[in-house]
Fold this protein.
Amino acid sequence: MTFVWIMLTIAVALVFIDVAVRKLLGIKRVKLTDPKGKKIDLIGRIICAILIFILYPAVIETGVLQMKHLFILFFTVLFSFQAIIQYIYIKESKEFFITLLMNVVFVVFLFNIDDLIKLYS
């Protein structure tokens, strides 16, 4: 049950921050519509997913990184890639700024996941 409460807390915080920053800065939600951008985005996401499945066993077995650090690295790469694609293909919007901010908030939550587990236990 603790896991559910932690994920709910993170989801509510991310939605609240997203709505608040969008209203504060006047950024409207814009989706990627360029076919070339969509194709690059899809290929990049697939490559990131393949890399995480390849790196996961090697990193965990050697003990170089803990699982949460691997997730932090993966989500940072994924969010950064998405922000770059948004910056290139959605020039008229500041959607990339929201994506980078969500990455920072998510990484902060992941760094403090142990404290959140203690809070809900």
Notes: The helical segments are 2-25, 35-62, 67-89, 95-111, 113-120. The longest helix spans residues 35-62. The CA atoms of residues 58 and 64 lie 9 Å apart.
